[in-house]
Predict the 3D structure of the following.
Amino acid sequence: MSTPTIPRRSWTQRYHVKGIGWTVLLLVLLVASAQMTGVNVGMFFSNLGQFTNLLVRMSNPAWDYTAVIIQPLLETIQMAILGTTIGAAFAIPFAVLSASNLIHNRWLRGLTRLFLDLVRTLPDLLLAAIFVAIFGIGSTAGVITLAIFSFGMVSKLFYEVIETIDMGPLEALESVGATKITIIWYAVLPQILNQFVSYFLYTLEINVRASTVLGYLGAGGIGVFLQRSLNEFNYNQTAVIILATLVVVLVIDGVSNHLRRVLL
Amino acid sequence: MQTTITTPSQRHSLWQRWGWLLWVLIIGIIYFWTINGLKFTGFQESASAVSKSILHGLVHPTWSYVYDGSGEDLVSLILQTLAIAFLGTIVSALISVPFAFWAARGPKEHYFLRSGSGKIVLTLIRTFPEIVLAIMFIKAVGPGSYAGVLAVSVHSVGMLGKLFGEAIENMDRGSEEAITSAGGRSSQVFALATIPTIMPEFLSYTLYRFEIAVRSASILGMVGAGGIGTPMIFAIQTRDWSKVGIILLGIVVMVLLIDSLSEQLRKRLI
């Protein structure tokens, strides 16, 4: 009878070198970050009075302000709808160009994806600041910001959907000599339409959230009023704006979630 | 011999045949309302001139700003931005764990009072705008990156708590049952089965959230909460497009590097 062999642990495993290494690295990074950002836990608690004061002032909202902000809230939704639509419309050709099952040219695909990656790196508020400088204060800057922001997001979601389609119908059409456009119209589109609409609604949800703060930099919508109330220290108005935004976001999320469940 | 293929009945109800018209009508009304409601009057005549100078600035960035040893240069501020995102994400990951256990529905739970209330709280945190949080924390600790760290720490709890909670709901309960059946106490089950099972997913979500936090840390500076956003908004307001160009370049490179690094790490985790 042979003696059972017990698996031996290597030296690095026995002394948990990897785990200890990661922990030390994490701690060093934490301490370095804390020093760089000047974190001072004591200061937060010594100034807690000011913070709670702010919360107390926010906790009795000025309800009569609701009437003022309904119009800008609607404008925010309109900005989000238009921005998402423009972004999604531009995203479709780019999504087709970066789907590996439709475009076999690796260079073209790589270049398109690199471009989309670059677009996606830019945070929304940063885009808003630049477009306010170009187009001036108003909702135009907001719509264009949201269009570019959703273009980057939607194109990635769309090409991932395109890559998961069933290639059977495509091959069938190809074998009877259909053109590229015909193939896309009759074989690709029916397979992806529902998912496209679902992702469109998902992006709309995110854009409604994003558009509520864009106005902070002058890009229209409710954010303009948010900035005004904060600058004038009218925190009871800020509270109304935040609550109203919350309601709008929840309603849009609810409608969109329901529609997406019906679609898929 | 000819066989007839039976096709499914072609008779549709009125709704099935004409229902799409209603959708077209609804969507048409929504878009009519949208386009009519927005005022596109904000155009300035200078728009094309400004765009040209922005493009010129982007092509001719102020390279001298990259590093000048003053601590106010691009590299130092990018590092500061990363520090805000890193510290904020770690702190929020720690805060999120109890929230996640609060919001996660247990396997044998029939009433959703506990998990439901947790989910509502997380939704409220998620919807509270991050820059408003930053402004509130600036009132408490003064302008600077500390306020940014606090804003990221609190805001990220909304999303991390939700993701962690879903991870707990969907986790494999096998190892928990194994320890219970061997007579383990609930504290032992938690330490020896729950935590090791859930850890890779928690770490993966934390890394993912770090990617998002890097983006938000780079704009929090626009309201005065430290990082690269502060010089960015100054450069935009003073129309110093060459400086805007170099900062944009710095942000793009930073985000691309962090995204690919985090993606590599996440691939190794799961």
